[in-house]
Structure formats: structure tokens, C-alpha cells
Amino acid sequence: MACIRKRAPKATSAAVRRVMRENVGRETHPERKLRSLLFRSGLRFRKDYSPVPKERVTVDILFPRQGICIFVDGCFWHGCPLHFEVPKTHSSWWQEKIEDNRQRDARQTRLLRALGWSVIRVWEHEIKEDSISSKVREIKEVVQQMAPRDGRKRRGHR
What we know:
This protein is α+β, with helices and mostly antiparallel strands. It has a single domain, classed as VSR Endonuclease (Endonuclease, Chain A, 3-Layer(aba) Sandwich), CATH 3.40.960.10. The protein is 37% helix and 13% strand. The chain has four helices and four strands; from the N terminus they run ααβββαβα. It has helices at residues 14-22, 29-40, 91-114, 132-145; strands at 46-49, 59-63, 68-73, 118-123. A four-stranded mixed beta sheet has the order 1-2-3-4, sandwiched between helices. The radius of gyration is 17 Å and the shape is globular.
């Protein structure tokens, strides 16, 4: 539903309005934390980058030479099956909004995979102190396995 934002309900208070305005789509704490640890582990990548010209797909972490796209999905905004709970206020709109986000995520993943990219989706809750090091090791292994042999950049990369 492309026009769901236009139908967004009004904030129920000034405090709610302030919290909602402070929510940003990029440079979230989980993204910064994961990028920092990946960088410290010796990996180099692009951030907030569109691997496919002319398509509205922005990847949180991109390894262009290895063809790997990483998305860091917030548990609330992307509808984590373990942690997402529909808010009590305006619940039908929120359910529709989160479902729209899930469908967009699935479309983007299908598009990138169809173009030959490997897609890794990381939930916000996987970037916690007790599990972050295993997630970094997992990503590093995938990147090292996918290292290009001839050093050429992938198709579709700008």
C-alpha cells in the first residue's frame, strides 16, 4: 500500500509526536554497532548504499565485490516474529503498516536475489551483547567464502 503514510493517524499526544519524529530509518544504534564490529574484524564495506541503479532499494551494509547485501531490521518496524506486538492505539493501521513493511522487505529480497546478490537479514535482537559476536563471525565467514576470484566488480553496481 503505497499511500499508507498519507493515512497515518495523528499522534495522540505531544510526547508520542516527539518520539515518532525521533525515529529515523538510517544510522540506527543496531546498524552502527554491527558496522563497528564488522569494521574492527577487518571487513570493509559500503553503508546505506543502493546496489541496483533505478530501483528503490537501499542496503544497510553492502559488500559489492562479494555480492552481499545486509539489512538490519528493527524488531518493531519490520514485524519481528519474536518481539513485535501491535500497538493498542490505532492497532488496525499499525498492523497494515507493519505488513506493508514485511511485503516490501520480501520484494526487495526477491529482487536482489534474482539479480545475483546474496541477502542477509539481521534482526535487531540479534545485535545484543550475548549474540553479536557470533553474528559478526557468521557474516565474516560468508564474506570470506564469497570473495571474488578475479577482482571484478559485480554487475548492477554503480
